[in-house]
Design goal:
- This protein is an alpha/beta fold.
- The protein contains 10 helices and 10 strands.
- Strands 2-1-10-8-9-7-5-6 form an 8-stranded mixed sheet.
- The protein is globular, with a radius of gyration of 18 Å.
- The protein starts with a strand and ends with a helix.
Length: 255
């Protein structure tokens, strides 16, 4: 399998100007990501997304009340992944779009639920796979799967749960099958929650997309990739998730 690593910067490193970051003594995320890539084996393809996100800094690429990127931010990362893989990305205009307003995320809850955020909630915009026949299942393993939605209607969900629109949230194991393709292509995405908004864009490029959330999965990614003969292994992590030993211990646990 071809290995890819996509390290997503967190919002401060992208949205704040270099001068303000320097004034606030914030470390350089671009430099940190490139250092991480430089320490990886030569056959791992590091997908650069920082500069692309910076180019779209005036767009709605990160939520305001939550730490995640929006689906638009994930889309720009998907385009960079397609460039690294050598395939043509789809245009935004090709996707069916759903929007779920009233989202109040982690910043809102962790920040004491300030009125300034409550009065200006986020909108979760979701882009449906172009294939209308693609189907998703999720659970703990192949023997424990429940039918789900790649894009789930969160219109009636509580304000804090609307990011769950993407692949039904954080589940240990997810399988998405696209019957429009019959080329045997497959990938496994090893991710934390930033990967949720990224996965739907992959559906139209693979016959099968497997998703493993390493924080909750109990098996071995190496064994899984071999058993299922996946063609690509794609690691998606945000820079904050890999800052300490706890999350990296979880990732090491599924090797």
């Amino acid at each position: 399998a071809q290995l890819y690593s996509l390290v997503a910067p967190i919002n401060g490193g992208v949205l704040l100007s270099d001068s303000l970051q320097k004034e606030l003594h914030i470390s350089d995320q671009r430099e940190a990501i490139r250092y991480i890539y430089s320490r990886m084996a030569a056959d791992i393809n590091g997908v650069e997304v920082f500069d692309t996100l910076r180019e779209h800094v005036d767009e709605y690429i990160y939520f305001h009340t939550d730490h995640h990127w929006t689906a638009l931010g994930a889309y720009y990362a998907y385009r960079e992944f397609c460039g690294a893989k050598g395939v043509t990305p789809h245009a935004l205009s090709e996707y069916e779009v759903s929007q779920y307003d009233g989202f109040l995320g982690s910043f809102y809850n962790d920040g004491g639920k300030p009125d300034a955020m409550k009065n200006n909630p986020d909108v979760v915009t979701a882009y449906h796979p172009i294939s209308t026949e693609a189907r998703m299942q999720y659970g703990k393993s192949d023997s424990d799967l429940t039918a789900g939605k790649i894009i789930y209607d969160e219109s009636e969900a509580s304000a804090g749960l609307k990011y769950g629109a993407f692949i039904m949230g954080d589940n240990p194991y997810t399988v998405i099958s696209n019957p429009d393709l019959s080329d045997g292509s497959s990938c496994v995405v090893v991710k934390e929650s930033f990967g949720n908004a990224f996965v739907p864009f992959l559906v139209d490029h693979y016959q099968t997309v497997y998703v493993i959330d390493y924080r909750y999965y109990s098996g071995s990614v190496v064994d899984f990739a071999k058993t299922n003969k996946v063609t690509d292994v794609i690691f998606v992590n945000n820079l904050s998730a890999i800052r300490g030993s706890y999350q990296m211990g979880k990732l090491a646990g599924v090797k």
